[in-house]
Specification:
Chain lengths: ~280, ~280
């Protein structure tokens, strides 16, 4: 059964056409790596699946229906933007605020909900974070907490928007392992957007590659090829394979890595050569 | 302001023997609790400057009300409410845009001055509006503040759950169906009510002393929501009442005493857990 289906979908953000005439279907239980250059529409696509952005043309179906916001069957980890630095909220309270957080009235957490929180914290190994204030957590710890939060309430579909950003290499591995383990066990369909393909190679079932307004869904061997990616990036791309790794290069530069650096480097030299040591 | 030299000689102990002091304690008590509770969310959302701006816009409203023969409170309420709703409705982010808000609040103070200029007999009220005049509070004002306080807290209670969710995780809250703009607008309207009440006690220039000082200190002292709210309200109440007491015995202005205590309490919490902020990016 298809969990997410797009048929000839066009998505706009303001006046900008982000995706144009895109069609694909994601099957139940699949782990999909969502890749593509910055601005290719990874977040926009997730917002459409969440029912926050209506399609300009075509049809989006999630669980066979038109998506609507507030669907409890979808777990979501937004790309982390809002971090209030001085916030002394405990991890457990932070998560609790999201449970039925759309209801009016005073906040309260039932015994049953407390149990759900504890169980999920255990599942992702984040129990140690429950009693600590958010302001005292590292980026990796916060991300682990948000991951736990996205899993509460037994979602059938998990949308993870750049969950690896701000994590170091070791924590990236840990995060991927946790998602894989929990989602395989619970048969959750996952859309996992990322900058680098290589870390996900052993985990993903198929790749959804976005670029140039288009989207291609398929196995790594079908999608991550010189002709397909050249079309998506709109420039000459070379795909090199070495030692179980895949490098997507444009004129001798590693495209994914360059993208990744841009995210942390919105300085005036944006878009030019990067001589950072990795 | 406070007790004249003559009365200070008569009594050295019982300030509650004076009607104006019991009135002041009642009014300051109501306002402090409301300010402490509403201010807690203002600080949590990082919108303290918006609160400050609302009070300045309220000044124009208060003096404008004087021009047309109304009590200042109604002008305050009308202007802060309108400004709060506009800020909230314009966008989720504009309430954090310091420059735009700064320009608007300066303009509002300017208009306040203009209104004073055209209604000169009202000028004696300017100090009271800017810095508060809690010792002149009468029973009618106490009743008005009590009604205002109940409405404010009832509205806050009604939106508290989505407000917290939207404050902590706006992107996720939106995905879960929280109407962000409605919540944000409703909250700023609540802040407008609290600011109007608060300005009656400490004046429009000093609403920070009750709406930001105590909540900011409370957030440094606590991690839980309910304890945080309780500490914030208790601190505001203690500062207001101690400030009144201090003013009674020193003959210093009440608003100065409250402002001093508020600043002292906040700075006293600063050394606590400084090492935790910004653990990593």
């Amino acid at each position: 059964m298809s969990i997410v289906t797009l048929e000839n979908v066009t998505l706009r953000v303001g006046r900008r056409k982000v995706l144009s005439d895109v069609s694909f279907g994601i099957e139940s239980g699949e782990f999909i790596g969502v890749l593509g250059p910055n601005g290719a529409g990874k977040t926009t696509l997730m917002r459409a699946i969440l029912g926050l952005l209506p399609a300009d043309a075509g049809t989006v179906k999630v669980f066979g229906r038109t998506p609507h916001s507030g669907n409890p069957a979808i777990g979501y980890l937004p790309q982390l933007r809002t971090v209030l630095p001085d916030l002394h909220v405990r991890g457990r309270d932070f998560i609790a605020s999201s449970l039925n957080g759309e209801r009016w009235g005073l906040p309260s957490v039932s015994q049953h909900e407390r149990g759900m929180i504890e169980k999920t914290l255990d599942a992702v190994g984040a129990r140690d974070l429950a009693a600590r204030p958010l302001s005292a957590m590292s980026g990796g710890e916060r991300q682990r907490l948000l991951l736990a939060q996205a899993l509460i309430g037994a979602p059938k579909l998990l949308l993870l928007d750049e969950p690896l950003i701000s994590l170091d290499a070791r924590h990236q591995e840990v995060a991927i392992d946790v998602v894989r383990k929990v989602c395989r066990e619970r048969k959750i369909t996952v859309l996992f957007s990322a900058h680098e393909l290589n870390q996900l190679l052993g985990t993903l079932d198929r790749v959804l590659y976005l670029g140039n307004g288009r989207a291609v869904l398929g196995t790594v061997d079908e999608v991550v090829t010189t002709p397909v990616l050249s079309r998506l990036y709109g420039t000459d791309i070379q795909v090199l394979r070495a030692d179980g790794h895949i490098f997507v290069m444009s004129r001798g530069r590693d495209v994914e890595r360059a993208d990744h650096l841009h995210d942390h480097n919105h300085g005036p030299e944006h878009g030019h050569s990067h001589h950072h040591h990795h | 302001m406070a007790p004249s030299t003559a009365t200070a000689i008569i009594t050295t102990t019982d300030m509650f023997a004076y009607q104006f002091m019991t009135n002041a304690f009642a009014a300051a008590g109501i306002v402090a609790v409301v300010s402490g509770l509403v201010g807690y969310f203002l600080v949590m959302r990082g919108q303290t400057f918006a609160g400050h701006a609302l009070s300045h816009i309220g000044f124009a409203g208060a003096t404008g009300a004087g021009l047309i023969g109304l009590a200042p409170l109604w002008g305050l309420l009308a202007f802060t409410l309108a400004a709060g709703i506009v800020m909230g409705a314009l966008s989720e982010r504009i309430s954090n845009r310091d420059v735009a808000i700064g320009v608007v609040l300066a303009l509002a103070l300017g208009f306040g001055l203009l209104f004073l200029h055209y209604y000169t007999s009202f000028a004696t009220q300017a100090t009271a509006l800017l810095f508060g005049n809690v010792l002149a509070v009468d029973h009618t004002m106490i009743a008005t503040l009590a009604v205002l306080g109940v409405i404010t807290l009832a509205a806050l209670a009604a939106i508290m759950r989505p407000l917290i969710f939207a404050s902590l995780q706006p992107e996720l809250a939106e995905a879960k169906g929280v109407p962000l703009r409605l919540v944000s607008t409703a909250f700023l309207a609540i802040v407008a009510l609290a600011v109007s009440a608060c300005a009656q006690i400490v004046g429009v220039l000093l609403v920070f002393t009750l709406m930001v000082g105590p909540p900011a200190a409370a957030q440094r002292l606590t991690t839980g929501l309910w304890t945080g709210l309780f500490v914030s309200a208790a601190l505001a109440l203690a500062e207001a009442w101690l400030g009144l007491t201090m003013a009674f015995y020193t003959d210093w202005p009440v608003s100065f005493c409250i402002a001093l205590l508020s600043a002292l309490a906040y700075f006293a919490t600063l050394p606590i857990r400084m090492s935790h902020v910004h653990a990593a990016g």
